[in-house]
Design brief:
Blueprint: H1 11-21, E1 30-33, H2 38-48, E2 57-63, H3 70-84, E3 88-92, H4 103-117, E4 124-126, H5 131-143, H6 148-151, E5 157-160, E6 163-166, H7 174-183, H8 200-215, H9 219-248, E7 249-250, E8 253-255, H10 256-260, H11 264-277, H12 285-297, E9 305-308, E10 311-316, E11 319-324, E12 333-336, E13 343-345, E14 352-357, E15 363-364, E16 372-375, E17 382-383, E18 392-393, H13 394-400, H14 405-410, E19 413-416, E20 419-423, E21 427-428, E22 441-447
Parallel strand pairs: 1-2, 1-4, 2-3, 4-6
Antiparallel strand pairs: 5-6, 7-8, 8-11, 9-10, 10-11, 12-16, 13-14, 14-22, 15-22, 16-19, 17-18, 19-20, 20-21
Helix pairs in contact: 1-2, 2-7, 5-9, 9-11, 11-12
Amino acid sequence: MRRARAPLLTPARVYSQLLRIHPPSLTAPLCVAFSGGADSTALLALLAAEPALHPRLRALHIDHGLQPQSRSWVRACRATCRLLRVPFTSRRLRLARRRGESLEALARAARYGALTAGLRAGEVLLTAHHLEDQLETVLLQLLRGAGVPGLAAMPAVMPLGRGFLARPLLDVPRAQLRAWVQSRGLGCIEDPSNTDDRHDRNYLRHRVLPAIVQRWPAAARTAARSARHMAAAQELLDELARADLARAADGAALSVTALRALPVARRRNALRFWISASGRLVPDALRLEEMAVRLLAARAGANPSVRWGPTQVQRQMGRLTLQEVPAVTPPYELSWDPRRTRRLTLATGLGQLELARCAHGLIDAARLPAQLTVRTRRGGERLRPRAGGPSRTLKSLLQSERIALIERQQLPLLFAGEQLVAVGDLWVDARWQPGTPGAKRLRLIWHRPA
């Protein structure tokens, strides 16, 4: 029994597929991510040959600057676009690789960042990912232990920046694209890094897939079918997550009580969707489990958090918040004589303190010594906010007033010797408050950075 032949590759077929996966492409401006390789050259030429698309088409080339001949590649891409009568733009990257960082991952992230930044409002970015690319993605995700979102591989269409990303060639074999380019006599760039087997995808492509395809010739199509099944399953999980998050929503935060009422698997699903919908990178399975179990089970007032990269989920006052991780304020201790200088500049980026005369100020000027100390929290500080009232820990005061954690970290504390005078511009200890109606009053002002 002979295998069915792949449908003939034509501009009309690509146009039809594009409209099927993203109907707004009927009128939207289109931008091809054009590397100059055979795949993206085929995509650009196919789209340029379709009269309904050509007037709305342009090409965007990202020059990584990693190869010595990259400048000549820009010229070659411009020449191809001139031949096809397609507007051409190029952007050059400057990659700064940190120790231990994957060059492959760095270049990919930088490329997509530049493509996203270069996308115009409502524009559709088109990439030339094809059938074998999808097979490679499925296998790589499987080897990395990915869950349903990863095994769904590359979606045919997704939001990107101010527009959309569409992949109209996911059902087209690589061989058809190469044949199309050759039949049109178009030149292509051969990037030597594509043969470097030190990169995971290249190793898979050159060492592993030939043996798989020889034994299972339809592997690419069956893997693509499995990816579509996973994508359908992910849609159902997303719908469930939306429903669970609607019940748990507390403004932009989530209610700990509502999340605790869910089974652990649904907690994980809801948290994953919540983080992804914010545009942030979803953490690994270990951290997601930590959020779904330990973070929600912690005692009230513990304020635990889970951090990954520049992001953290913080539990505070019965709510989970998603935030960028604030830079840790290094401990500092400064001496201040307010009689000599009205203002004191704090550590870098934390603003200034000012002791100013004020008819309603809460500090009695006569009680303050000449030498004051300003420093960050160390833990265990106590304060009596009003005369005759109880002494309270600074921690409990901050919690009761729901002061944000980043502000707690940055709060300047004013001391006279070992005695706490004031906490930023929030509280003054009773012993330093005016005792007589005619007392000279001062107000402590914290000029926060913009």
